[in-house]
Amino acid sequence: MTKTYYLAYGSNMNLEQMSKRCPDASIIGKGELDNYQLLFKGTYPDSYATIIPNKGTVVPIILWAISEQDELALDVYEDYPNLYRKEEINVKINQESYQAMVYIMNGDPSLTPPTISYYSAILAGYLANDIPIDTLHQALLDTYESSVISEFN
């Protein structure tokens, strides 16, 4: 069975969610993606996590090994190729380099707060994987700050 490395930074860090969606998936490890920023973008209630290049910032990630069937399930969940596109990114986990597939949101939708349930799913993934929640909270704060500023412009 061919395995693909998949880099998760949002709700697919949630172990329970991934076990249901991608039963063949196994965790390679956790780490950080350097020079990227986590954001929430879309139109409420359809606001989801994405990453953008941003020098000097990092995004916590989980690296999964997934099967072809898992990838097809993720394609449906991520609304590929409409909402998200796939890119290849090099990442280091436990001193080993991997070429990993990652979903990145298409276009440049506005920063928009996510639903509580979506945010909670991501938070559960951070907590279950012992990942500090600073980056996740900062993404939410950045989103709310942008929303407030745009309301007054």
From TrEMBL:
Keyword Hydrolase listed: no
Taxonomic superkingdom: Bacteria
Listed CDD domains: GGCT_like
Annotated signal sequence range: none
Residue ranges occupied by any Gamma-glutamylcyclotransferase AIG2-like domain in the UniProt entry: 7-110
Any GO molecular function: gamma-glutamylcyclotransferase activity
Keyword Transferase: no
Pfam family, one: GGACT
UniProt-listed InterPro entries: AIG2-like_dom (IPR009288), G-Glutamylcylcotransferase (IPR017939), GGCT-like (IPR013024), GGCT-like_sf (IPR036568)
Keywords (A to Z) from UniProt: Lyase
Name of the protein: Gamma-glutamylcyclotransferase AIG2-like domain-containing protein
Lineage: Bacteria, Bacillati, Bacillota, Bacilli, Lactobacillales
